[in-house]
Amino acid sequence: MTVSRPTEDQPGMTVRTRFAPRPTGRLHAGNARVAVFNWAFARHHRGTFILRVEDTDVERNVENSLETILEDLRWLGTLWDEGPEVGGGFGPYRQSERKREYGEAAGRLVEAGLAYPCYCGVEGAGEPGFRYPGTCRTLTLDERARREREGTRSVTRFHVPDGEIVVRDEVYGTVSFPPAEFGDFVIVRADGRPTYNFAVVVDDIAMCITHVIRGVGHLSNTPRQAVLFDALDAPRPVFAHLPMVLGTDRRKLSKREGASSLALLREAGYPASAVMNYLSLLGWSAPDGKEILTPVELVREVGLERIGASNTVYDPDKLRWVSGRHIAGMPLTELARAVAPFVDPARVPLDRYDLTRAVDVIRGRMTTFAEITDHLSLFLVDRGPELGRLQAALRNDAGAGAVLRAVAGGLAALPEWEPRAIGGAIRAAGKEAGARGPALFHPVREAVTGRKSGPDLGQVLGVYGRDETLERIAAALPDGLAQD
Fold this sequence. Notes:
Distance between the termini: 97 Å
Order of helices and strands: EHEHHEHEEEEHEHEEHHHEHHHHHHHHHH
Helix content: 40-55%
Shape: elongated
Structural class: mainly alpha
């Protein structure tokens, strides 16, 4: 028997993957990793990435959850080709809108003798190890009719065939499941709603899904789905189950562990490209062992053959390292735009300075955008009492005064105000004043920034500008620069 499936005048053999979240909360790292792999794999094969919403479990659905999931996916960069908000030729893309399709498929299975109504009042008993004994499997049509007349509610069960169920998985190899493990299972509940395993199979057939890439937690669902594909006379898709993601405590990572949610990662200032990169490394590795990958590089390199079967660990420290590498490699103007919302104007006087030049000074030190204020405040300081006290102390230091006068003269004569030239002028002034190392650089840094250490001084003064730099140096000299 068959379930109607779109003819192949549309996708042909095109790779079609899907990500099918349940609207029960925001995306966490484990689910987002599944989206990344499906998106990248489809892009690698110039295929189609479908977003499907599994919202039939009404009791667990969270209001506005779908909107936040879509927001998270857009931020991550895993844009879907078909699904909510974009449409497509294989919809609807919400399971709650596909009741007719499930009813028709279940009816055909019953008509073919591959499924049957069950009046026992247990859908799965909800207990581990429960196996339905098949009580209603052999009811005659007259017995079924009598139960219906009596008003007995029924579920629909699938008649699991005898013999081992063998599934080929691209990660875990050939896996066998004895049918005794689960018995005849429910495909339609008493209220008419489809069960998870039945709905996803009907949807995967109707939407021409070629590859089912998901977490290993779904491997136990695969035998039920495999026999449903067979019963509906549809080819099984390629199955690939990603290894389990554990927390640093070696327990399964959960969406309830908020630190791994995409929303919090975004709020913490992680670049989306870095998050995508890191998630791809959870169970997969590039052929050349490269760990820092742009989305374009990920799409080019991704493949099922390099997914490992061992559990993988979500390591926040590794994520920060990957994030720092992405930040260091971002185009400067793009980075300046990205960090701007994270700058605290109460701590950093950006209204007087060029943010792009300031960001260039510390880009190699940042691991998230949210660190921008802490890093800038180490060298970008407004005039105030604290700076004034340091400048006053320098005015009483004759050695520092000689250095500052020489440096001021060299900086004033520079034809161009750029970091390399500024650094060269400071070193040349040091030779003139007979100072080097800390004796040369500390007075200049303290006079301008009020700090004893910080990023490259040439870059720092480049941010302040010539006039501001010379005015601050003058404030650290007993008589200013007037006599020069």
